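ligand=magnesium ion
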Amino acid sequence: MNTKLVKVDIENPDMNILGEAAEILRNGGLVAFPTETVYGLGANGLDEQACKKIYEAKGRPSDNPLILTIGDISGLYPIVSRVTPNAEKIINAFWPGPITLVLPKAECVPMTVTGGLDTVAVRFPSNKIARELIKAAGIPVAAPSANSSGKPSPTRASHVEFDLNGKIDMIIDGGAADWGLESTILDVSEDRPVLLRPGAVTQEMIEEVVGKIDVDPAVFSKPSGDIVPKAPGMKYKHYSPSARVILVTGPGENVIKTINEKAKEDAQNGLKVGIMATEQTKDSYNCSSVLVVGDRNRPETIGANLFKILRKFDFIGVDVVYSEVFDEDGEGAAIMNRLNKAAGFNYIKC
Ligand code: AMP
Ligand code: MG
């Protein structure tokens, strides 16, 4: 298949191009498009055959459900059987934006979308290209991240091209995704909300709106093989570069000393080593592949760059990556959740 790559200006999207993309979606094809979190891989969310193509293109396990995106709040009601009171509060506070809600599904939503569950995950993105495209399509658009399953999510059109060129109909290049990590997922299908995946809308922000929520244990700990997680995607290896990622934690100077020692030892053993550093620490490492993920004082820079840097380590072809860790407060929860998964919870404490 020939994948068409088109550039669209986020400030002033060309409606002719978005019209063409919408037509592809309505006809059962696949279109990757930018959102404020990461790039999504869109298909007609009510068309089982189209959704199957998403699983094929990504190499995604079929019990890992998709998120349905809507371009307008009115798109929610036909695809859920009930909007709970907590869902309404969250919608009023944060939609459109980077939070996905899990609700009881309506009859019309195929089981291919929900991975066999009787709930459906729905998001109303704020990115202008995404909204206009979904509105033009006039259907709910199933849109998981537009990467090969297991790889870091794409935050640039070039990442999508690298993973999916030749496997999908179109890629809309709308520049870098602002936030850079996938949406927060909150299950509001029952009385007490459960956080299934941390993201830009933090636990603290959610609790200000609906009071205390539960956090799925898989968010911060290594999932055991036999768990049946509420968010089925949690049981799969995620966000990983090909290199082995090792997180190093301890007092600042110890971390730098340990990483330098390990890097030297590995290099002597013939391994190609990468180090994920911050603006604050980049000059303290002796290694040829030191990449800066962001500024510790501005965690949003780390969120925005994390997947890009993990992909860059793959591109350079390192065997092992040593990384510093970050505070788990606020938006740090999302960063550490992804980093822990990329590393398979592999830690050195020093
Ligand atoms: P992605 O679109 O790649 O960010 O992945 C979507 C994720 O949403 C899945 O991996 C699941 O963890 C989660 N998800 C989607 N639908 C549901 C659902 N009905 N219940 C719980 N989690 C869901
Ligand atoms: Mg994904």
